[in-house]
Amino acid sequence: MSPWRTGSYNWVPVTKARNDKPIIVAGGGIGGLSAALALARKGFRSVVLEQAPQFGEIGAGIQLAPNAWHALDALGVGALVKKEAVFIERMLMMDGVTGEKVIDIPLDERFAKRFGNPYAVTHRADIHGSLLDGCKSLPELIELRTSTRVAGFEQLESSVSVATADGGRVQGAALVAADGGRSVVRERIVGDPLPLITGHMCYRAVLDVKDVPDELRWAAATLWAGHNTHIVHYPLRGWKLFNLVATVIGKHTSGGHNELATPEEALPFFSHYCGQVMKLMRTPKEFRRWMLVHREPVDNWTQGRVTLLGDAAHFMLQYMAQGAAMAMEDAVCLGAAVHEADGDFERGFLSYQQKRLVRASRVQISANSLVGMIFHVPDGLEREVRNDIYRGRTPERYYDALEWVFSAPDYVRSF
Ligand SMILES: Cc1cc2nc3c(=O)[nH]c(=O)nc-3n(C[C@H](O)[C@H](O)[C@H](O)COP(=O)(O)OP(=O)(O)OC[C@H]3O[C@@H](n4cnc5c(N)ncnc54)[C@H](O)[C@@H]3O)c2cc1C
Fold it and tell me: Distance, CA 322 to ligand 1 centroid (Å)?
């Protein structure tokens, strides 16, 4: 039994709301629900508007580094999410061509002690479900509405009027846009066009662990690196499931996500990989294909009583496994900033933006550079040089290098 599996909600007693008009939260993904919870924990009332007919997450895995767990703890659901998580023992990077172990980062007691929380992997539905249950347990402070798509907004003197796609209007004290990477609110605040094609694409599958080759059932978040491609896998849900994500950069010409793809389509991209990992790649009967889109960092997330959060603010490639972690940290920071500004939303939002900009942008930029510099280097001499750089490194050197991202910011620790 893991020492982290302790269990239940950690709620503050509900108090009377500090705001009359609700804060409108656009989007009920991990970012939006976290924002509603963080605001509620500081006594602020909100209404979450979600476009889908029900709240939910796609059926795939997610990695949660110590900083993500600190944010979940601040939101009061850390112990609950830990109940379903798998506490993996190491992070590995393997040379996809030769099968050599290149990077091995132990995630043992030493690691958890240093960062104050473990590294674990979980099912997206489990983390989203815990946040949703948390929101539902505070009905005085959080209203949840489905089938409500935000279409635009208007800032009035001391409030915000949000237009919905069905022609309705919702009045609020402020607007937090957690409506994802294709945010309609961002269009108005930042106005940067979403790149249609980035060339980054991934094939995802969640397998029954019984179907996974024995020799790859590792208690690790494993990344196999090969030219222009990489493959990530880890166990899920008490070792019942196994998450597989295979990424390729190429000249892809369509931009959909979560589309059905056959092994015949996916496998040729990875034909330069060694037999061990190709055996795993041949296991799924089908994949889900995702064209990966991301944006460049910008420094204007806020306009008056409206601010962006999560992917709406910093849509990034998943290569640092930190997008959801950043969304949850944003939420905690937002709650603290609005609390400190005592409900002066314009001041609170600017303070939130100022505290979050550099950290979130650094993760966004790092995610891009990891691919070119480490994961996807060409076969041959460059690959051998990459392996030589990492060979024999001590765990402490890795921990030092990861300190900036895995350590929780002060506003999360003191929430
Ligand atoms: C392959 C892959 C692997 C990843 N792995 C990890 C990982 O291991 N660790 C990690 O931390 N992150 C990971 N991420 C990133 C992470 O999934 C995202 O950063 C995170 O889910 C963003 O949450 P969000 O709430 O900001 O946005 P979203 O999850 O996109 O949620 C937005 C919500 O808003 C709703 N919505 C959209 N538009 C509107 C509208 N106009 N009105 C009302 N509602 C609207 C949507 O229906 C949705 O519910 C990964 C991403 C990918 C693609």
Answer: 11
Residue-wise pLDDT tens digits, 197-247: 788 999 999 999 999 999 999 999 999 999 999 999 999 998 999 999 999
Atom of ligand 1 lying closest to residue 32 CA:
25
Q: Report percent pLDDT > 90 for the chain.
A: 88
Mean pLDDT to the nearest integer, 84-106: 96
- Is residue 364 assigned to a domain? yes
pTM over 0.85: yes
For 55, the domain range is 3-87+118-194+296-373
Res. 12 pLDDT band, cuts 50 70 90: low
Residue nearest to atom 19 of ligand 1 (CA): 323
* Rounded Cα–Cα distance for residues 123 and 133 (Å): 16
Ligand 1: residues within 6 Å at CB? 26-32, 49-52, 62-63, 68, 149-150, 178-181, 184, 202, 245, 290, 310-311, 318, 321-325, 327
Atom of ligand 1 nearest to the CA of 292: 53
CATH number at 45 reads 3.50.50.60
What pLDDT, on a 0 to 100 scale, did the predictor assign at position 11? 58
